[in-house]
C-alpha cells in the first residue's frame, strides 16, 4: 500500500503579521494587519485608519519571533521539521509598497531567518503576500482595486527572488487568494477598505470591486510565476487556497446544485485561473447574474496562460453544508459560515471537525489538476491550560491532527501526489480571524495573553513530542 513519499515535507506554518511582532522596527512600514485591533469570539476585531492608544493591536508585538527566531527555529529543528512555512512582511522590504529600492534592514532579517533554517536542514516555504498589504497602498489606491498594485507587487517579488537565491526554493504567491470571493476578503486578501474604520464584520461589500481586485492579483501572481520560471528555474511556485469543503445538506437536487455552485465560486474559480491559466466558463454566468464586469487589459489572458503555478496548496480546517432551505442551523467557519452538519463535532470556536473531508477534498483537487498538492494549513484552535507543573496536556490537538494525517494517507493510497504537510500555528500566535491569543494552535505554548501581557516564554506541549515521532516515522507512528 502507498504511504507518504520518502522526501515528504513535514513541518509547520506561520504568518509574519501573526507572530513576528516588531511592527515598526528597522524601517518596517504599517500593513493592514497592523491597523487591526484585538477581538474575541463574541466581539469582532476592528480596523482603524490610525493607531488609537486605547486599543490593543496584537500584531505589534505578537510573540516577537523577530527577536526569538533562533530559539523558535531550534525548537522546530528539535521536532524534525523538513520545511517551515512563513511569510515575508511586504512592509519590511518596501515600507509603503511604493519605494524604488528595498529596505536593507528588512532583507537582512530574512537572510538571518533563512540561514538559521538551512543550518538545521529546514527548507523555507515562503508566502509572498499573507494578509499584510502595505497600508499606504490601501490609503492611496484602495488596495488591489488599482492596477498599479501589480507593478508594486512585481517590484517586491523581483527584490526577494534576487536576494534569496540559494536559500529559498519553494514560494507561494498569495495566501488564501480565494478568500477574495467572500466579503471578508475585502480586508484580509484585497485591502479594498480605503477610508473604513470599524468592525471587520461590518465592512461595506461591493462584489464588483472584489472581483476586479482579484483579477489584478491573478495577473500579479502570473507575472511573478513567469518571472521565476524565466530567471530562477530552480524555484517552484505554488498557489494557496482556503479549501471550504461543502456538502449538500440533503439529496434534494436543489441542495446538490447549490453546493456545486458554492464549490465552484469559493473553491475552484481562483485555482482554475492559477493552475489552468484561464477564467473558467462557469464564471461567465455568475458575472452576468451579479452584474460584475471584470476589466481586462490587452495581454492579460496571455499572461495568465504563461504564469501557471507548479503545485497546489491549501488550508483545510473544516467543512459545512449547503441547503436551499433558509431555516437551517448555521455554524461558524474559516472566512465563511455554513450549515451545521449533524454528523460532526465542532471546535471551541464552532468550526466543524471533519478529517474525512480532507481525504475527499484532496481527491477532488488532484483529480481536477493532477499537479503536486501540499496541505500548508490544518489545525485545531483551542483553549490550552497551563498546568501547575508547567505542562500542557493537549490530547485533543493530537487527536485532531492524527485523524487528519490518517485521511491524508488514505488520499495518497488513492493516488494523490501529496508533497507535504505544515500544520497551522506550529507555535502559538495571534488568531487572524479574531485577534486573540487564547485561540491556540501550536505545538509550542507561548506565554502571551489577550490583554497583551506575558513573559513570551516558550513551553513544549504534549503534542510537541507526539509530532516529533510522527515526523521521525514519516507518518507511520501516529
UniProtKB/TrEMBL annotation:
InterPro entries: GH (IPR017853), GH_1_N_CS (IPR033132), Glyco_hydro_1 (IPR001360). Gene3D superfamilies: Glycosidases (3.20.20.80). GO terms for biological process: carbohydrate catabolic process. Keywords: Glycosidase, Hydrolase. This is Glycoside hydrolase family 1 protein. Signal peptide: none annotated. It comes from Roseburia amylophila. Belongs to the glycosyl hydrolase 1 family. Pfam families: Glyco_hydro_1.
